[in-house]
Amino acid sequence: MGKLAVFKYFSFMLLVVTVLLAVFTIFALFGGNADPSTNTALAMLVYALPLLIVGNLITLLVWLVLRRWHWMVIPAVALLCCIRYVGTIYNFSWNSGSPQSSSLHVASYNVACFGRETTGFKAQDILMEMKNREVDILCMQEYYNVSGDKLNSDSYKEYFTYMATGREDMVICSRFPILKWEKIDFGKTNNSGMWADIDVSGKTIRVFNVHLETTGVSGALHRADKNRRQGEIVEKSAILKAIFDVYTYGMARRARQAEQVAQLIKESKYPVIVCGDFNDVPYSYVYETMLGDLVDGFRECGEGFMYTMTNKKKIRIDYIFHDESMEGESYHKADINYSDHFPVFMSLAL
Q1: Residue scoring higher pLDDT (58 or 92)
Q2: Helix or strand or coil: residue 177?
């Protein structure tokens, strides 16, 4: 086979890869509208978007090197379609404003039960962090109230005068009066949500705190490891199937929970702020459902690459959304390792 034939074959295969990457990318962008219960494949394609974007970038560069300008159009169009998605994970902030003394400072933090430590040091360090940042409203998920012979709520109430509790692991702390609150029951699951009506200087705001269904992957891996330690033979195919099963189950459960919360947000007679650990990535069905007509604080006034997990998973699953009647002034996470999540902070002008 001559050099020309080899080059033509390479070009043809590259074109096939280019077209496939572009097609899968476009389909993945519609994954946020696909209910995981009825269209699992399309819903899951969202999670491949970062890899698909990288693939399109590579093919774009290769066609550029080869000077095949007409074929460059395919990955270029696919990448242009991804601009909104890229904005959910990386943001070039043009917001030059800074929080004012009258701003409302909100934080959301999955505290991982404070490590269930008996000393209370983690809980107190987190409280000090919130004081230093002058947080007005704090939504905690996986909250744990007992530290040895003390209650964390006792010390937190010295700064956050008002506290509303959902299920025992969900709490909203506020420096402003809490007028009313209710639990959001997700049924037979360890996850839940809640909301609280808060009087912020004469204006009532409904604050949602949610912790949606977990992926279940860690549990599946833990069970497989436990079976191995007990001498059982665990096939890789069985592990992969177990992971797929629990993940798709979790996706469906999160979808129903997101729809339940979204309906409550629509029914709210007050402007809303939504905080929480969604256990899902931007552009997913859960993200789009929860966002609805609200504003993603990070997209509005965040900056740089945003991820909220402290482990190797560089993904954003913790969020603060708000009503369009409010204006975001700043949005950031704090690199503190008291949990497997980073806390997220936002300042709002009401």
Answers
A1: 58
A2: coil
Tell me which residue of 334, 261, 322, 318 sits closest to 297, measured CA to CA: 322
Output phi, psi for 319, to 5 deg. Answer: -140, 160
Q: Residue 147 belongs to what H/E stretch?
A: strand 146-147
Q: Are strands 104-110 and 137-141 parallel, antiparallel or unpaired?
A: parallel
- Sheet of strand 104-110, all strands in order from the earlier edge strand to the far edge: 162-165, 170-174, 137-141, 104-110, 344-349, 327-333
- CA-to-CA distance for 92 and 113, rounded, in angstroms? 34
Summarised one tens digit per residue, pLDDT across range 191-221 is: 999 999 999 999 999 999 999 998 655 544 4
CA proximity to 310, closest of 278, 333, 331, 286: 333
DSSP 170: E
Q: Are 195 and 208 in contact (CB under 8 A)?
A: yes
Task: Give how far the C-alpha of residue 194 lies from the chain's centroid of Cα atoms, to the nearest Å.
Answer: 17
Tell me the C-alpha distance between 317 and 20, whole Å. Answer: 29
Which letter does DSSP use for residue 92 in this model? Answer: -
* Mean pLDDT of the chain, nearest integer: 88
User: With contact defined as beta carbons under 8 Å apart, do 309 and 297 qualify?
Assistant: no
- In the chain, % of residues over pLDDT 90: 70
Q: Apex CA 39: angle with CA 37 and CA 41, to 5°?
A: 115
**Rounded CA Rg of the chain:** 23
How far, in Å, CA of 169 to CA of 308, rounded? 20
CA quadruple 300, 53, 259, 167: dihedral sign: negative
Burial class of residue 9 (count of CB atoms within 10 Å of its CB; 0-12, 13-18, 19+): exposed
Determine the distance from the C-alpha atom of residue 295 to the mean position of all C-alpha atoms in its chain, rounded to a whole number: 14
Q: In whole angstroms, what is the distance from residue 48 CA to residue 44 CA?
A: 8
**Distance of alpha carbon 278 from alpha carbon 209, whole angstroms:** 10
Closest CA to 47 of 272, 206, 284: 284
What 3-state class would DSSP assign to 305?
strand
Do 134 and 151 form a contact (C-beta atoms < 8 A)? no
Label residue 194 exposed, middle or buried (CB < 10 Å: 0-12, 13-18, 19+): buried
